[in-house]
Structures are given as C-alpha cells and as structure tokens.
Design brief:
2 domains; five-stranded parallel beta sheet
Length: about 300
C-alpha cells in the first residue's frame, strides 16, 4: 500500500475521533467555558509568585544570592511590587474562574483583587514570624538537623508550611481558588496534604512528612508535632435532604498545644486532643482525649500454651 493510500485513511480516522470528542455529551462534564473571556489562573505565574514570596520571607536563602543588609530595602521593594502585580492578576483570574461572590459586580473585580493583594502583603511580617517559629521547631525537634538553615533548604515540613502559611492567609481573605492551588503545589512536591483552611499555631513541625493529611477545619495549637502518615480527617460527611454533602461545617479534629502524634495515627471527627497529649503510632482515634493522656496500641496478650499431653 502506498503512502498516498494510507494518508486519507489516517485523516478520516482522526476526523472521526475529533467528531466524537466534540459532541456535547462527551465534553459537557469536562469543558470550562471562560467567563467574560477571562484567562484561567496561570500555574507558571503562581510558581513565580511562590519563588518571589520565598525570597521575601527568607532573604538570602532564596532569590538573589548576594542580598546584603544594606541593599535589602532595594531588593525587597522591587520584589514586593512584582508580587503585588502577579498576585492581583491571579486573584482576578481565580475569581472569574470560580464566578464566586467576589465583588459587588463584575466591573469591580479588578479593584477588589488589588485590594486583596495589598491586604495579603500586609500579612507578610506575621507569616514570616510564624515560619521562623516552624524552622526553630524543626531544628530543635530533629537531632539529625545540623542548623536551622538546613531545615529551610531540605525539610519537606518547611516547604509545606511556607505554602500553607501563604495559602491560609489568602484563604482568610476569602480569595477564590488560588489558596487551593498554592497548597496543592506543596502537596505534589512533599506528599504533605494540608488544606488551606486549616488553622495551625506557631512552632509546628512534621517529621519526615510523607502521607500527612490535615483537613480544612482542623485547628492545631502551638508547639505540636506530627510524624509521617498521620491523618487528621473527617469521620463522616453529613448530607442535606437532597443527598448533597453539606459543606463548610466543622468536621476535623482540634489539637491543643504541645500535642504529639506518631506515625500512621488516624484521628477523625470534630474531637479534641487535649494539651500535652501523645497519640501513639497506628492508632485510630474517634473520641476526645484528655490533656496529658497517652493513647497507645493495646499490647497483645500472650497466648497460653496448651498443656502437654501426658505420656502413656
């Protein structure tokens, strides 16, 4: 068969696939129709935003390598201006994508996005202070850490918390969509899944980190520590009379100050783990735990050996 005979057949086959994929019953569930001809949020722009925010929060560790104290104001001012512009644009795009109750009318979306971006910038000193406490907790809590700087460069916990502190601040400002994208960036890199709605106190450390899940309505106090594979999740998902999940209710655990949760533990529901409690590895907790309590797996009971048969 010649090439001339093959080509029309291939084109016809591709046309048939195009026809199938362009049928409404095929694309309706997966097609995003742009609202007001607005562009979708840009992952590339948000990656740049996070890089610039890391440089602003940890000068000298990220961004320009030769940041000096005497030139810090120059670098910081230029960087914050870029952060403001990128963030305002992405907030506007996220709002148009979600078509949320974002502004009084579409014409004010741009000014509302700029206001939110500036409100976020004003939170950066607070975010830095929280992250500094997380870095110190990681250094003091891991005997393998040789310096606080090592935890900034190397530890997945710090990577996850940088993104979470930023995402949570945006979440508190009711920014649509962008906080979830920022949190999922860290999730994909570290294996640590923290919903931007989770409220986490200072000096928080996740040792190792892989497989940790922290739900939207979790409240975690100061100086808490989790190990890998910990789940702070919901026990059940109530539905309305139509069978639709009810969203926005408090359904995840509260950890008071100084709680430690060891590897593989699962804590579910709106329960409270009291101050200073310790949850052992691989346990399943669905009830309140009193302050100072240690919850451990029950030790297996020794099996009694059957009596030896008497010799005849």
């Amino acid at each position: 068969m010649s090439k001339k005979e093959i080509r029309p057949t291939r084109i016809a086959q591709i046309d048939a696939v195009v026809e199938a994929l362009c049928r409404p019953e095929s694309y309706e569930a997966v097609y995003h129709s742009p609202l007001h001809d607005a562009a979708m949020p840009s992952l590339e722009a948000l990656e740049e935003l996070m890089g610039r925010l890391r440089a602003a929060l940890f000068p000298g560790f990220y961004g320009p390598e030769q940041v000096r104290v005497e030139s810090m104001r120059y670098h910081m001012s230029a960087n914050l201006d870029s952060i403001y512009r990128i963030l305002a644009e992405q907030i506007k795009r996220g709002a148009c994508f979600s078509c949320a109750d974002f502004a009084a009318e579409c014409g004010t979306c741009e000014s509302t996005a700029r206001d939110m971006a500036m409100a976020f910038l004003q939170k950066l000193p607070e975010i830095r202070a929280l992250l500094a406490s997380d870095v110190q907790a990681a250094y003091e809590g891991d005997p393998a850490a040789r310096s606080p700087g090592e935890t900034i460069f190397c530890y997945p916990s710090i990577t996850a918390m940088i993104n979470h502190r930023i995402a949570h601040a945006l979440y508190d400002l009711e920014v649509p969509l962008i906080p979830r994208i920022v949190s999922e960036m860290a999730h994909s890199k570290t294996g640590i899944d923290i919903h931007p709605g989770a409220t986490i106190g200072k000096q928080f450390f996740i040792d190792h980190g892989t497989g940790v899940v922290i739900g939207e309505t979790c409240i975690i106090g100061d100086n808490c520590r989790l190990y890998q594979g910990v789940t702070l999740g919901a026990l059940s998902f109530p539905k309305d009379e139509n069978g639709t999940l009810i969203k926005g209710i408090a359904r995840h655990p509260i950890l008071e100050d100084n709680v430690t949760v060891y590897a593989g533990a699962t804590i579910l529901g709106r329960i409270t783990i009291g101050k200073g409690a310790t949850i052992g590895g691989n346990v399943w907790v669905t009830h309140d735990v009193a302050a100072g309590t240690k919850v451990m797996q029950e030790r297996p009971k020794p099996v009694a050996k059957p009596p030896k048969a008497e010799k005849a």
